Amino acid sequence: MNAQTIYNLLRLCVSSWDHYRRYSEKISNTRKFIGWLNDNEYGVDKIKENAQKIYPYSFQKSAIEKLFESVSEGNLLVIEAPTASGKTEVPFIPFLTQICTKNFEISPRLIYSLPLKSLSNVMWERAATYLLATLIEMFREAHKIEKLFKERNWFKNGVLELPIGLETGSLIKEGDYLYGGFVVIGTIDSIIYAYVSQRFPGGLRNPRLSLPSGLLSTSLFVLDEVQMLQDEYYYSPRILNIILRQLTSVHTPIIVMTATMPTELKNIMLNDIDYVEVVGKKSERGKVSIDVSFLKQGEKILDVISSKDIIKEIKDNIEQDKHSLIVTNRVSTAIEAYNILSQKFNNRVVLIHGKLNANDRENVEKRIGREKGLIIVATQVIESGYDFNAGLIVSEIAPLDSLLQRIGRVARKKTETGKAFIVNIEESKPYHQNIINTTKNLLVKEETDVFEEALQDIEITRHLLDEVYKKEYIENFIGEKNMEFACSIRYLHNLRLFSLPPRDIDFTFRPEMYVTLITTSDERLRGQIDKIEQTEDNLFSREKFEEFKEILENNSLNTSTDFANYFLAKRGLLYGKLNVYSIIRTTKDKKKRSMIKVEITNKDKKKQKVRPLDIWLLEPHAYKEGLGIVTGIQI
C-alpha cells in the first residue's frame, strides 16, 4: 500500500468532484469534461490548488488500510459509517491508485453496484470525475490529458467516451454484461442476473455464458447502500448471502457499504461469511433539528406542505439557494404534492420517482445537479446516492432506516444547519405495518435529540435500528415467499459453468421479477410504431435498429410484473407487447444479411397477461411527461 499516493489522489478526487459540480452549475449542463478540465475557474489548475486544502478523514484512512488487509487475507470488508462521511472514496481511490503505481494488487476491474437504477447515472458521473482526477495526478496538465484521449481513441464522433461501463439491466439495450470498462457502475439486479446466466452476451447462437461470472469473480465488487435491499420478506438478502458465499469461496474482493444496516439484516446477509468490519463512528456533517409535532398531531403531508409555516420555510431555503425536499412513500401522493407546490412555486418544483421514464428522470437529475434552491418532491428513490445538499425536508413517516437516509440529505456540510419535519400517513403501504408502528412509537417516545445525534453517530443509529428490526419480527417475515426462495436456491445449485442455465427452474433476485414499459407519447416513437403496424415485413437493418433502440431506451422504465398486470393491464393501459427477433435474410445478390424484425402483439386488452422480462408499450394517455405513469389510483 502506497499511502502517500493514495491520499494525494483522494484529495484530487474530492476536489475534482466538487469543481465538476460547480462547473456543471455554471454552464447548466453535465458531462462536458473537456470544457471543465480547461476552465479557468474550475479546471485542472484550480482542482490541484484546492486539493492541497483537503485532508482525508481518519475513518477513510483506517478503511483503506483494512481494504488492503482484507484483499490479502481473502475476507469480505463491511464499511459502516453515517451519511456524508466519505464512504464512496474508500473503494475508488485505492483501486484507481493502481493506475498510477502500475501495481494491480487489488484487482484489474471495479464493479460498483447500487440498489436502484435512479442512482446509477449520478454515480457514473462521479466515477468519471475520479478517473479524470487520476489522470490529473499522472499528467498534471489538461493538454497532456487530451493527448492521451486521442492516443487511446476515446473520442468517438467528437464525443469523449471514457472506459466506464453503465449496466442497468435494460431489456432494450443489450448492455456490456460487465465488460464495458475497467470500471462498471450498475444496479445490483443487472449484475446478479448476469452472474447467474440470466443475462449474457452473444445470445443463444453464440452464448458466452460464463463471461459475466468470470468478470465478477475477478473484480473488486462493491455493494453500496445494501440496506435498501431489505424487502418485506427479507428475500433478496437471503439470496445475496448465497451468492456472496460463492464469491468469497474463490477470494473475490468484496466491500459491503451502509449507513443504516440493522444487526438482523447483517446477520442474514453475511451468514457463514468471514468478514472484517470498519466502523466510522461519527461524521463531520451539519446539524439537523428534527420536529415530530406534525406526526404527534396526526397531520398528513398534503396539508402540512400547504401550511403557512412550511411555505415560509421553503421560501427561506430558496432565498439561501438551498434545496427543499418533500418525500412521500407513494408515487400518487408525490404527484399530488408536486401539483400543490407547483401552483405556488411554478418551475422551481421538480418531481422524481420510480415511475418516470429514462428521459424525464435524467432531465430532473440534471436540474438537481446544476440548479440551486429547488423544491424536490420525491419518493424513496431520493434516500441514497444523490450527492446534493438540502436545507429542509418534510417526510412522511417511514421505517427508521429509510427515514434516517432521507434526513441524511440535509445539512451534509459541517458548517450548515437544516430542519426535518416528520408527518403522519394514511396507510403503511408499501411498508410493513409493524415496522411503521415501532418507528412511530420510537419517534414519539424518545427525545428528538437522539435521532439528531444518530445522523452523526453510527452506534446510536444501530441501537435505534435494532429497536425497530427485532429478531421476532424478522422471523415472521422470512416465513413468507419460501416457495420462490426454494426455487431460486435450486436454480443456483444446478447452475454450471459453460452450460445453459437450468431449464424449468425460476430464479428471482427480488420477490418480484421486472418488466420494461415503453411510454408512447414521444412523437418520434409514435411514428415508428405506426410504420411497424402498417408494414408487413417490419424489418430493420442493424444500423437503423440501433437508432430505434435509442428512442425506446429514452422512453423506457422498469417496473414489477405485478404492477404491470394489476395496475395497468386490468385497467386497459397497455397498448401491446413489443417483440424483437434477429433473423437472416438473403439479398438479391445472394448474400446473407442479419436483420431485426419488430412486431407488436397482444393488443386484445381482455387477454393481456404480462410475464417477467417482457417489453410492453403503454397507451399514450397512461403517461404524462414530467409526472410519470398515471393510473388514477393510489400507487
Describe this structure in words.
- It contains 25 helices and 23 strands.
- Strand 3 (155-156) and strand 4 (159-160) form a beta hairpin.
- Helix 1 crosses helix 3, helix 1 (3-27) packs across helix 6 and helix 5 (89-101) packs parallel to helix 6 (120-139).
- The radius of gyration is 25 Å and the shape is globular.
- The strands form five sheets. A seven-stranded parallel sheet has the order 5-6-2-7-8-1-9, sandwiched between helices. It has a six-stranded parallel sheet with strand order 10-15-14-11-13-12, sandwiched between helices. Strands 17-20-19-21-16-18 form a six-stranded mixed sheet, sandwiched between helices.
- The protein is α/β, with parallel strands linked by helices and 635 residues long.
Which outline best applies?
A: globular
**Count of DSSP strands:** 23
Q: End-to-end span in angstroms? A: 50 Å
Strand portion, in percent? 15-25%
Query: Helical segment tally?
Result: 25
Mean pLDDT: 88
Name the strands of the widest sheet in spatial order.
Answer: 5-6-2-7-8-1-9
User: Regions with pLDDT < 50 over 5+ consecutive residues?
Assistant: none
User: Helix fraction?
Assistant: 40-55%
- What is the CA-based Rg, rounded? 25 Å
Secondary structure category = alpha/beta
Largest beta-sheet characterization = 7 strands, parallel
Describe what is shown at a glance.
By secondary structure, this protein is an alpha/beta fold. Strand 12, helix 16 and strand 13 form a beta-alpha-beta unit.
